[in-house]
Each structure stands twice: as C-alpha cells, then as structure tokens.
Amino acid sequence: MEYINITKDNLENEHICCAISNNKDIQVSSKKAWLAERLDEGLVFLKSSERGKCFIEYIPAENAWNPIMADGYMYIDCLWVSGSFKGNGYSNDLLDSCIVDSREKGRKGLCILSSAKKKPFLADPKFLKHKGFTVCDESDNGIQLWYYPFTDSAEKPEFKGCAKHPHIDEQGYVLYYTSQCPFNAKYVPIVEQTAKEHGIPFKAIHIESREAAQNAPTPITTYALFYNGDYLTNEQMNDKRFLKLISR
C-alpha cells in the first residue's frame, strides 16, 4: 500500500473520503477548508493512495480541537480504516507512521479518544490496548482519553473540567459540532430542518475556533448531542436516525 501525505499543494486534487468524490460537494469543500487552516498548525493527514476510508489525522495536542491538557503530545483526531481495507494491516501502518513522525518531532507520546466499549466514530479500544495504549482519564459520560507515552517519565494527559463533567444548562436538543467531520456540512442542516418541521426544540452550535473547541462542554467536539442538559451521543444523525432517537 502506498500512502499520500496531504499538503496545501495537493489538497485540492486528493480525495478525502470514498463516499464523497466531487470536490464541489459541500462536505468536501467544508473539510478541505478546515484542513487547509490546520496544516499550518502541524496537522498531518496521511491516507491511502487508493480511494477509500483508510487514513490517519493527527495534530500537536496544543492545537487540538478538544478540551484536553496534553502539552507535548500528539493528538490523533481520527484513525479510520474500513471496508475492503480492513484486515490488511493498514491501521498498523498508519499508526506506526504516526509514532515515528511524532518521535522525530520531539513529542512526548500520543493520545486519542475512545471508550471502554467500541463507539461509533471513536477508536477501537481493543486495537489501542493491543498497540500499547492505556487509559489516562475518563469523563462522566464514559468517553476515555487513552495515551501512548514515549518515556516512562512523561506526564499523563487529562481532560479539562468542562470535558470531564459534560453538561449544559440549555433545554431541548443542543448539538455541538465542528467542520472536522465532512458529513456535518450536509447532515446538520438536514437535522435542523427535520426538527423544525416536527416542532422539536433543537439548536446547533458550530464550533468555529480552536479556543472554543478547547473549552467546549464535551470531550468530543466533532459531534456531541445533548438533551435537556445531558449528553446523549457522538453518533452523527440523518433525519431518520434523529427521529428514531427522539422517539425512544
């Protein structure tokens, strides 16, 4: 397998997701605009040369769009290998490349979000444990911060208080999200319209700065849905999934 490192020079021409092939699609343009700004902040997007979901995205933790305290670490936004790419060792390739790159850049180690049991859009805890990661912090809603230190003396990363105790005061459904995930550009407006049509109290808060993301009331900022102040899920919704959720 050959891998391609996304840069400002090739960003416009490279695909970022097999499900979205048209650069004019709002999902693609939104994600690429977000990536372009992050590349100057040390973000690395390494992907398969073949079209499909096979990539790793990571950034110095100081610049991560999550409320964590992990100075000196590299934070993995996403490690995603699926479909026909699974079972071929590509996850190992991508993570090993991240480890080598992070060591060369003088980082203290890696950190990433997961949970005790596999959740959608989060790293598989079984894989992380197999690779030597351990849990260093956990929020009240079960989201865990895992880390892989390069030295025994490296201090453990941890959540900020706002992430460790995720709760908001607003009633109804409140969604916090960023443009890190391309699917949000398409599906958040769909859920907003669905809620409006059904008279469901719904508010979408688009996190548009690193400062806001690092002080968000949730460890997961790409997509975090609350109801009457309590955290519900990080699973992205379309109209049908949202209506099914509220019917419970």
How does this model look, in words?
This protein has 248 residues and is an alpha+beta fold. Helices cover 27% and strands 27% of the residues. The protein has 7 helices and 13 strands. Strands 1-2-3-5-6-8-7 form a 7-stranded mixed sheet, with helices on both faces. The protein has a 4-stranded mixed sheet with strand order 11-10-12-13, covered by helices on one side. Helix 2 links the parallel strand 5 and strand 6. Helix 1 packs across helix 5. The longest helix is centred in the middle third of the chain and has 15 residues. It is globular. The termini are far apart. The model has no long low-confidence stretch (mean pLDDT 95).
